[in-house]
Amino acid sequence: MWHYADELSDEYKKGLRELRLERMKRKSVKDELKLSNRIDEWTNDMEVELRTISGMVSDMEYAISWLENAREPGLKRGITNKSRYQRTELWAEIDILSMKAYRMQSTVEGRELSLEENARMNEILDCLSKREREAYRCIMGEGHTYAETAYFMGITRGAVQMLVNRAKSKIQGCLETGIVQTTLVFA
Questions:
Q1: Which of 185, 172, 136, 131 is nearest to 154 (CA)?
Q2: What pLDDT is stored for residue 76 in this prediction?
Q3: Which of 35, 79, 133, 183 is most buried, judging by how many CB atoms fall within 10 Å of its CB?
Q4: How much is the pLDDT for 186?
Q5: Residue 149 buriedness (CB in 10 A; 0-12 / 13-18 / 19+)
Q6: What is the average per-residue pLDDT within 146-158?
Q7: How far is CA 176 from the centre of its chain?
Q8: Residues with Cβ < 8 Å from 161, sequence gap 6 or more?
Q9: DSSP letters spanning 106-134
Q10: How many other C-beta atoms lie within 10 A of the C-beta of residue 129?
Q11: Rounded distance, CA 68 to CA 2, Å?
């Protein structure tokens, strides 16, 4: 795999040399016009082209640095060196842990939901669309990660997050407006 990165890096370096030459030519034209007091011949289009080429040079340098160092340029610490708290999404873990605790409580006691409790849970989840329900159950009920759920559903991780957030807000809205009563008793 790194063999291809080396080849790509070499191609980028070749392109970078050509861009630097082009930028140098345009800068020399600008400098000549300044020295000969004909700077008014330097047009806005020429300035835009020079800035565009300079931006391309910067982008190529960035990409080459990334390819050669195998990490984002400018970062002093890679993701592997970040602390656990910088790599963790605590809000998602809390929801998953609370649902796992509920499941453990019901299975340890050997207790399953009664028909009435199951009906109320379904009633609560009926306010969700099919996709929202599927994402919500995978994340909240089964304890899968967002990445796993995205893979199962064939969508992006961000789409899963959006579906779960929308499901949470719909459920909260249904409970607040009284559309669904929350009288589930877990004895």
A1: 131
A2: 64
A3: 133
A4: 42
A5: buried
A6: 88
A7: 31
A8: 146
A9: HHHTT----HHHHHHHHHHHTTS-HHHHH
A10: 12
A11: 9
Q: How far apart are CA 87 and CA 79, in angstroms?
A: 8
Cα–Cα distance, 184 to 178 (Å, whole number): 14
Measured CA to CA, the distance from residue 127 to residue 122 in angstroms comes to: 9
What is the average pLDDT value for the chain, to the nearest integer?
A: 77
How much is the pLDDT for 180?
A: 60
pLDDT score at 95: 53
Give me the sign of the Cα torsion angle 91, 147, 81, 72.
negative
Question: Helix, strand or coil for residue 72?
Answer: coil
**Predicted pLDDT at 91:** 46
Tokens of 182: 């929350």
Q: What is the DSSP letter of 86?
A: G
Whether 100 has a pLDDT exceeding 80, the answer reads no
For 8, what's the count of Cα atoms within 13 Å in the CB-facing half-sphere? 14
Q: Which residue has the higher pLDDT, 79 or 109?
A: 79
CB 26 within 8 A of CB 46: yes
CB atoms within 10 A of CB 104: 10
How many other β-carbons are positioned within 10 Å of the β-carbon of residue 64? 19
Q: Does this model's pTM top 0.70?
A: no
For residue 77, the 8-state DSSP code is: S
pLDDT for residue 168 is more than 80 = yes
